[in-house]
Design a protein that fits this description.
GO terms for molecular function: methyl indole-3-acetate esterase activity; methyl jasmonate esterase activity. This protein is of the alpha/beta class. It is about 35% helix and about 10% strand. The chain has one domain (about 5-300): Alpha/Beta hydrolase fold, catalytic domain (Rossmann fold).
Length: about 300
Amino acid sequence: MNRRQLLGLAAASVTAAAGAGLAPAASAATDRRRPPLVFVHGSHGSSGYLVPLAGELIQRGRVALAVDLPGHGAEGYFPIWYQAPQDLHAMATEVSPIAGISLQDNVNRVVSVLRRLGPAILVGHSLGGATISAVCNAAPHLVQRAVYMSGYCCSNGQTVADLFLSKENADSLMHELPSAADGAVVLANRFNWRTNDPNTLALLRETYMADGTNAQLRASIGGLQPDEPYGVSLSDCSLQPATGGRVPRTYIRFTQDRAIPLVLQDKMISDAGRFEVHDLASSHFGVMTKTVELAGILDALC
């Protein structure tokens, strides 16, 4: 192996670094005058599924990284009962050790990254939208722009749970997905992403990745963890007029989303107001199926 190959492996190892998810290798093409982009993942996920999107932006000369929220990614909960063969009894009864993670914990994690990196464009996908709103409230001076990619954006004291139960979300196919456990027993939102039930897999594809293949669906859900703490969904994460409400914001509507329907996306845009709006013809997992198109939108923001 020559020196060039060794340097290539070193750069690859940086992009796989835990915690930040993806960090840019030094490049003469990188424009340091443009703000970095920091990505916040959604429910049950990690920085891992955002790596291709961040990588596309890095190739365009941007600084981009994805954050693992507490209890996710390298800190994720992947118990023995989740492996094959699965122990369905334990899945239905074992209390989640990450149940106590709160919205404030998420905020602390993201703010700690922004303090080291400097003011950034903060991008939240799905449930990650709640965290970026709370970060905008807590540290608006560290956020140059908040971007919601089919993400939850609460207003007027709302919680994500309120939006999930709203009439605008009635057509969300997430309502039809079978839970793996009673949340009152395990103290978390638990789902068996590693199911081999063909009906559930078909519903998952329709819900999250109707514009992708079955192979892409399995690849995308293979790394998802079973538990998501309730703390974020039950907390008031609405933008506060004096702080987070003053941060410039963009909403990227995923127009074919069956998890967060377009009518709910439009309600959040209308309620919060002052959005710059872009459309992407994609499913909820468009962050993986439409990375080039999405990176183009993000790269043009600033």
